[in-house]
């Protein structure tokens, strides 16, 4: 089958990916989700293929969704726990990439230092997928946009308001992803925790940044994430003093003035801090469909990068 959309060699960051490639991944993920819904299984297009899951940080969703994605597509994944490989300490990322790529057909890596995923990709002849770094979380953004598309039926012209730490990996990838699909972004974050100006320069999205909670007015999607990300634990006390006004609670949902607004959070959540139980478990919440869609959206990455299925 031929495709006019250029193939990806890795999935590291959204600035490396065009809007048509991003849309191609969304469509392929939707097809694979539909295939499994209809037939109870996917075609085993990754039979005989394997994926290394290399983790420097904890994970539930990323680890399990990639592992099950490989199983569903007929392949195999193996988990390398934090501390086991010693990426950048016991062994350089360049050497890890050259060794692992002799054993398996793809590498998914969750790292602290973003340069490590870049270095893995530079030295690996097999595709590398960024499963979160301190800088970005492009797999999360793919699944999140997939979820909004599935639920709302459109993306162009929608507004996503992100409340909380606007400088973190999830916010960065959402800002980049929104630009691929014509969504607007309103970042509502305290001074000092607003997006890096370089990220705002790189995105095609129309982004406004404010520390005023009225920034959520008109939002179709209200998104938050933890105030203290993995690796920032020493800053937790300070962040707990700064962020409470930015809690995603019922008053903030009402402040959108949009009765159809949906609420999203990448999880894990610190319930009672950045989001209340009432909202996380309430009628606007997409938290669990969003988590489940990690599986379906990432299958598109696996089918394309490891299985050679073209983007269309
Ligand atoms: N959202 C997300 O990436 O979850 P994990 O940290 O559990 O993988
Ligand atoms: N910003 C969070 C996302 C976790 C999926 C973190 O990096 O800890």
Order of helices and strands: HEHEHEHEHEHEHEEHHEHH
Q: What percentage of the residues does DSSP assign to strands (E)?
A: 5-15%
Reading off the top of the CATH hierarchy, the class of the largest domain is best stated as Alpha Beta
The distinct bound ligands, ions and cofactors come out as:
phosphoric acid mono(formamide)ester, norvaline
CATH superfamily of the largest domain: Aspartate/ornithine carbamoyltransferase
Q: How many distinct beta strands?
A: 9
Strand order of the largest sheet: 7-6-5-8-9
Q: Tags for this entry?
A:
single chain, alpha/beta, Rossmann fold, four-stranded parallel beta sheet, globular, binds norvaline
Describe this structure in words.
This protein has 312 residues and is of the alpha/beta class. The chain has two domains: 14-137 and 294-305, 3-Layer(aba) Sandwich (Rossmann fold); 140-291, Rossmann fold (3-Layer(aba) Sandwich). It has eleven helices and nine strands. The protein has helices at residues 19-39, 61-72, 93-100, 114-123, 138-152, 169-181, 197-202, 236-242, 250-255, 277-280, 287-305; strands at residues 50-55, 76-80, 106-110, 128-130, 159-163, 184-188, 207-210, 221-224, 262-265. The strands form two sheets. It has a five-stranded parallel β-sheet with strand order 7-6-5-8-9, with helices on one face. Helix 2 packs across helix 11. The longest helix has 21 residues, at 19-39. The N and C termini lie close together (10 Å). The model has no long low-confidence stretch (mean pLDDT 97). Bound molecules: phosphoric acid mono(formamide)ester and norvaline (NVA). Norvaline binds next to helix 6. Phosphoric acid mono(formamide)ester binds next to helix 2.
């Amino acid at each position: 089958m031929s495709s006019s959309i250029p193939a990806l060699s890795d999935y590291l960051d959204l600035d490396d990916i065009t809007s048509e490639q991003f849309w191609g991944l969304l469509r392929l993920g939707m097809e694979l989700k539909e295939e499994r819904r209809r037939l109870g299984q996917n075609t085993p297009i990754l039979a005989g293929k394997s994926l290394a899951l290399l983790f420097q940080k904890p994970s539930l969703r990323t680890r399990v969704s990639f592992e099950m994605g490989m199983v569903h597509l007929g392949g195999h994944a193996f988990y390398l726990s934090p501390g086991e490989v010693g990426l950048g300490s016991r062994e350089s990322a360049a050497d890890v990439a050259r060794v692992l790529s002799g054993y398996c057909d793809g590498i998914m890596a969750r790292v602290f230092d973003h340069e490590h995923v870049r270095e893995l990709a530079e030295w690996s002849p097999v595709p590398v997928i960024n499963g979160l770094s301190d800088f970005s979380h492009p797999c999360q953004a793919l699944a999140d946009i997939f979820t909004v598309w599935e639920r709302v039926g459109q993306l162009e012209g929608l507004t996503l308001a992100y409340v909380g730490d606007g400088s973190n990996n999830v916010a960065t990838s959402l800002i980049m992803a929104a630009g691929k699909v014509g969504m607007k972004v309103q970042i509502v974050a305290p001074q000092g925790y607003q997006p890096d100006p370089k990220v705002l320069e790189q995105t095609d999205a129309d982004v406004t940044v404010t520390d005023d909670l009225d920034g959520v007015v008109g939002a179709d999607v209200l998104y938050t994430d933890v105030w203290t990300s993995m690796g920032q634990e020493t800053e937790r006390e300070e962040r707990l003093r700064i962020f409470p006004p930015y809690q995603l609670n019922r008053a903030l949902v009402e402040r959108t003035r949009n009765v159809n607004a949906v609420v999203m959070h990448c999880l894990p959540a610190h319930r009672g801090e950045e989001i209340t139980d009432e909202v996380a478990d309430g009628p606007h919440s997409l938290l669990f469909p969003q988590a489940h869609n990690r599986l379906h959206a990432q299958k598109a990455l696996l089918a394309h990068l490891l299985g050679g299925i073209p983007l269309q």
